[in-house]
Amino acid sequence: MISALPNDLQLDALREIANIGCGNAANALSRLMGGREVRIDVPDVMAANVDDVVVRFGESKPVFCISLAIEGDVTGQMVLVFSDHDADVLAKLLCGPRTGASVVDAVSALAEVGNIVASACLSAIGNLTRLRLLPSVPHLLSGNARGVVAELVGVTRGTARAVVIEARFTASNAPGFSGRFFVAPDAATMPRLFRALGL
């Protein structure tokens, strides 16, 4: 929850560092998938509550997410969100064509996606700001969009607001897939981030 919303200059700065971080994340994801092209939209930065973000998915749409905490000089939450179908496509791409791949293999592969993508993103932002940023151990869960988003924003009601950065990425070539990448920095540590950016 935040007590004061960032100004336009600060939001532009967040969007720019998110663009750099997510670009690194897309490159890491591309390498994981054998060089398939992964495209990423320019990240959207919003002061959002649970209801604002849920509406982007659909209230009861089933989703699969890989959640990690941001630790270090800036704290917060990072979540990769996929539809159940896209999570299945990605797991099969990562596990390869072998017929013996188990559910455990798929879950482990998706957890590794979260770890590598988050590390690439935070490393790029850390290099730019000279801040120490590390991802926690990934946590996987599935359910409806509201439950996943509530965990990200950190509230269960639609009244409190948080700064949320959203990026969408898509992979080309058959089979293609798409997903979303959310970052919600903790309000208490955002001033440290803005100082590192000279704001």
CATH architecture grouping: 3-Layer(aba) Sandwich
How many beta-strand runs? Answer: 8
Main β-sheet: number of strands, strand sense, barrel status? 8 strands, antiparallel
β content, as a range? 25-35%
CATH topology, anyone? Answer: Chemotaxis protein chec
Describe the secondary-structure layout.
Layout lengths: L7 H25 L5 E3 L3 E5 L1 H5 L7 E11 L3 E8 H12 L7 H27 L3 E3 L3 E6 H9 L8 E10 L5 E9 L4 H7 L3
Antiparallel strand pairs: 1-7, 2-7, 3-4, 3-5, 3-6, 4-8, 7-8
Helix pairs in contact: 1-4, 3-4
Compact summary:
The protein has helices spanning 8-32, 50-54, 84-95, 103-129, 145-153, 190-196; strands at 38-40, 44-48, 62-72, 76-83, 133-135, 139-144, 162-171, 177-185. The chain is α+β, with helices and mostly antiparallel strands and 199 residues long.
Characterise the protein shown here.
There is one protein chain. This protein is of the alpha+beta class and 199 residues long. The chain has one domain: Chemotaxis protein chec (3-Layer(aba) Sandwich), CATH 3.40.1550. It has six helices and eight strands, in the order H-E-E-H-E-E-H-H-E-E-H-E-E-H. Helix 1 packs across helix 4 and helix 3 crosses helix 4. The radius of gyration is 16 Å and the shape is globular. The two termini are 21 Å apart.
Descriptive keywords:
about 200 residues, eight-stranded antiparallel beta sheet, 8 strands
